[in-house]
Write a structure and sequence with these properties.
730 residues, Rossmann fold, 4 domains, six-stranded parallel sheet
């Protein structure tokens, strides 16, 4: 609006526009990385400028003929030579057009919006004025670029690409597709007599002498078309309008990619007696034809393949016909039992054959390996398909019934049922495994069963449970040992075992290269079906001081289902959750009310100097009403406050300070669980790490840091006991 002759901006609307503009910038950054030829270095790409500045006199955005290009300068030899190279990457036609329109039309308004939204931060306005890609109030970085790549590749590939993985994959594709221009680059490296007579190398001659005004310092003029050709060749393989193509969007979408005639190739180097001539690479079609001919020559004849397939198929067909005949004629049960035993033996042999096949694939198949061995795997897949041809609803219902029976056995309650329709729906989604899941269930609503039961119902699939707190690890180990459910805890000193289906791992370890390697090795012998992250709200709140959580999107290192569990994820943060964890677009969100009407709340205003004494008095009053199994928790907001209260009351103080070892924390937790000390003093980190069902009193001494900590703390009271609990705030 205009007020008193001046423009008054709606800052909230401008900030929303800048965030949408950052999404456009992220898409342009993604296309520049993946469609302009060989991938650039992430750190350099995200910091490129489109203006010359005092500190950076050579801008990164240039137009070479008809090609809008980004100039990279980094080489691994830069530190040795002390000089940068200018290496152009030609942008595809669509990216070029949108980027030009962006900088000409949208960017001036973005500068105005940034000045209105950040009046005290002129450096933000400078970002919009000088840099090609801007992420709201800062530049993008390599982690942002990896996150963008993962977000858009995950729904298609079921695997999140990152800068590192894309560099390997693109190089392999480029090698197979014949996009290399090593022969042209080699021209710049070879010396000739004329250059040596002039007292310099040929690279110096190409870079300094007899060049046109369009040449770039640091690269021979005749070599520049080779860089542009490499970008265009990659764009043709990606089937996008190539750089330099002038066409309407309608024409570009209706016709296959084409390009203007490539620049004339430089002359071939003169042959020399004391040097081998430059070897030019074979055309891609010739290489592919040679590879196909070599493979076909090693294939056995169709008669040999048919004979081998029938040899493998006949025993299975005979067994199926015998079983069918016995079931039709009502044969004795003894024969049927033997048939089942043989079937189990055959399944066992198939499993062993699968693991042997994986091991052979890992070590490489030799030339002597018969090519028809793969028919075994195809037959197994066909058998599985036939067996699962029943209606999916009946099969899923039977699996859910089996899951309920397992849960009844763990709880030692034959009449136990699903705690809610939401828990039932979550279990169905987890066991089906077709999409990601965010389960927001109240405290005591059976979230942990979503991780435990699938590992028992589906013995041929592994389940990974990621725990962000050490206290959670202790609590899960306690419950699994009570349930007598086999599990393994990941450690860097030993590989993962395929004999145990449930794997516990801390969140920090689950983001390390060692874990990803161990998980990939396990997946070769047993399918890893799902990864379940408990207390999924923690990475959203802790990524500012727990650096590992900034890379939480890297959890899915292999194709598998992601399941997020929490009792404190508000609906407004679902999009942030999906982005942070890189969930698929069809992610299912199942939510139930987390109200706790059985809890009672008491609020007291107490002077700071008498707060610890009042806590001791409340514990003494409440303790007189407790039963043997009842416990209490006191949450403090600082290490000093917890130590002071512990010295006054002699109750153990559970905390994450470096001075407290893991053994000490485990000992204090066990003392509290076993009732040697019915009260445990703890920092707020313990609020999400305990599911003991008989906590009768929870006290927050002093004001919690935020509402999530408070809700997590009050959720510990009466966890599944059904007798009510007391909440105290001092």
């Amino acid at each position: 609006m205009v007020r008193q002759g001046g423009i008054v901006w709606n800052v909230g609307a401008l900030q929303a526009w800048l965030k949408k503009y950052a999404e456009l910038q992220s898409l342009l950054l993604l296309r520049a990385q993946m469609l302009s030829g060989a991938p650039s270095r992430g750190t350099e790409l995200t910091a490129m400028t489109y203006r010359n500045t005092q500190t950076r006199p050579t801008r990164n955005l240039v137009v070479l003929g008809k090609h809008v290009s980004l100039l990279c300068q980094y080489l691994k030899t830069t530190a040795l030579t002390g000089k940068d190279k200018l290496i152009p990457h030609a942008l595809d036609a669509i990216t070029s057009d949108i980027l030009v329109q962006d900088l000409a039309l949208a960017r001036p308004f973005a500068e105005i919006a940034a000045k209105a939204c950040f009046p005290d931060r002129p450096e933000v306005v400078d970002l919009y004025r000088n840099h090609v890609f801007v992420n709201f109030d800062r530049l993008f970085d390599s982690k942002d670029l990896s996150l963008i790549m993962s977000r858009h590749s995950l729904p298609i590939m079921h695997f999140g690409l990152t800068i590192n993985s894309w560099r390997h994959i693109q190089t392999a594709w480029k090698r197979k597709l014949g996009c290399a221009v090593e022969d042209v680059i080699e021209m710049d490296r070879e010396d000739n007599v004329e250059a040596l007579q002039a007292g310099h190398s040929r690279s110096t001659e190409n870079r300094v002498y007899g060049i046109s005004v369009e040449a770039l310092a640091g690269a021979a003029e005749d070599v520049l078309p080779a860089y542009l050709n490499a970008s265009m060749e990659w764009q043709r393989h990606c089937q996008v309008p190539v750089s330099g193509q002038w066409a309407s969007y309608k024409t570009a979408r209706a016709h296959p990619p084409s390009s203007p005639p490539p620049p004339a190739a430089p002359p071939a180097p003169e042959p020399r007696e004391n040097k081998q001539p430059v070897a030019y690479s074979m055309p891609a079609e010739a290489v592919q034809k040679a590879m196909v001919d070599a493979v076909v020559a090693k294939l056995p004849s169709t008669d040999e393949i048919a004979t081998k397939v029938m040899d493998k198929l006949m025993p299975a067909l005979k067994g199926m016909l015998q079983d069918m005949f016995q079931s039709t004629t009502g044969g004795p049960s003894e024969r049927t039992d033997k048939g089942k035993g043989k079937e189990r033996e055959r399944e066992k042999e198939q499993e062993q054959g699968q693991s042997t096949s994986h091991g052979r694939a890992q070590s490489g198949i030799s030339d002597r390996s018969p090519i028809w061995d793969h028919s075994d795997v195809e037959l197994e897949q066909t058998d599985i398909h036939v067996q699962s041809a029943e209606p999916s609803t009946s099969g899923q219902s039977a699996t859910l019934d089996q899951a309920l029976q397992m849960m009844q056995g763990l709880l030692k309650n034959p009449s136990a049922s699903w705690k809610s329709k939401e828990q039932h729906a979550c279990m169905a989604t987890v066991l089906k495994g077709e999409t990601d899941l965010v389960a927001v269930l109240g405290t005591g609503a059976g979230k942990s069963m979503l991780a435990i039961i699938p590992s028992m119902v589906q013995p041929k699939e592994a389940t990974v449970l990621v725990l962000p707190l050490n206290s959670l690890m202790l609590d899960y180990q306690r419950r699994l040992e009570e349930f007598r459910v086999p599990y393994q805890v990941y450690g860097t000193d030993k590989p993962l075992s395929s004999s145990t289906n449930l794997i516990l791992v801390t969140a920090d370890k689950a983001l390390t290269p060692q874990w990803r390697s161990a998980l990939a090795m396990l997946n070769q012998s047993k399918k890893v079906a799902r990864l379940i992250f408990d207390e999924a709200h923690i990475p959203l709140m802790s990524k500012d001081y727990r650096m590992a959580f900034q890379s939480i999107h890297q959890l899915r290192s292999i194709p598998m289902q992601l399941v997020l569990l929490s009792a404190t994820l508000p609906s407004w943060c679902m999009e942030e959750v999906k982005t942070t964890f890189q969930l698929v677009q069809q992610t299912e969100v199942i939510r139930q009310s987390t109200d706790r009407p059985e809890l009672g709340y008491h609020l007291e205003r107490v002077p700071v100097h008498s707060m610890a004494r009042r806590v001791a008095e409340v514990l003494e009053e409440e303790g007189s009403l407790w039963e043997e199994r009842d416990r209490a928790l006191v949450f403090v907001t600082s290490i000093a406050a917890g130590q002071h209260l512990s010295h006054m009351t002699a109750y153990p103080f559970y905390n994450g300070d470096k001075g407290t070892s893991d053994e000490d924390r485990r000992w204090m937790y066990q003392q509290w669980i076993k009732g040697f000390s019915k009260v445990l003093i703890a920092t707020t980190a313990f609020s999400a790490g305990n599911d003991y069902p008989h906590v009768r009193t929870v006290i927050h001494m002093d004001r919690p840091f935020d509402m999530v900590d408070y809700i997590q703390g009050q959720g510990r009271a009466d966890h599944g006991a059904g007798r009510g609990g007391q909440m105290g705030d001092l």
